[in-house]
Amino acid sequence: MAPGAEPERTCVGCREKAGKRGLLRVVRSPGVVRVDAGGKAPGRGAYVHRDTSCLEAALRRGALARALRTGLGPDEAARLRIAIEREVVK
Ligand SMILES: [Zn+2]
């Protein structure tokens, strides 16, 4: 990778690659899945576009849970959706 190049990550919603700045990181820390607004939290991360259609796809297809290698219960998925939507509209 060239110096200064922005690292690319794959959106779990649409499967397209994008620079990290256009994506929102979700991280699985011990016991909790949450939005990593700073993009630097330790733990297994997954990326999704700052776009509600990508978020919907990631949750509906179970792609987000799979990328994080965890199960997402309905309550946790709902809580996460609210947290992500809050970031998306910012
Ligand atoms: Zn996407």
CATH architecture: 2-Layer Sandwich
- The counted number of beta strands is 5
Structural class: alpha+beta
Unreliable stretches:
none
> Largest sheet, order of strands side by side?
4-3-5
Individual helix count: 3
Tally of distinct domains: 1
> How much of the sequence is in beta strands?
25-35%
- What is bound: which ligands? zinc ion
The percent range for helix content is 25-40%
CATH superfamily: YlxR-like
Largest sheet: 3 strands, antiparallel
Coarse morphology: globular
CATH class: Alpha Beta
For the termini, the CA-CA separation is: 30 Å
Please characterize this protein's 3D structure:
This protein is of the alpha+beta class. It has one domain: YlxR-like (Hypothetical Cytosolic Protein, Chain: A, 2-Layer Sandwich). Helix content is 32%, strand content 27%. The strands form two sheets. The chain has a three-stranded antiparallel β-sheet with strand order 4-3-5, covered by helices on one side. α1 runs antiparallel to α3. The chain starts with 7 loop residues before the first strand and ends with a helix. Residues 11, 13-14, 16, 49, 51, 54 line the site of zinc ion (ZN).
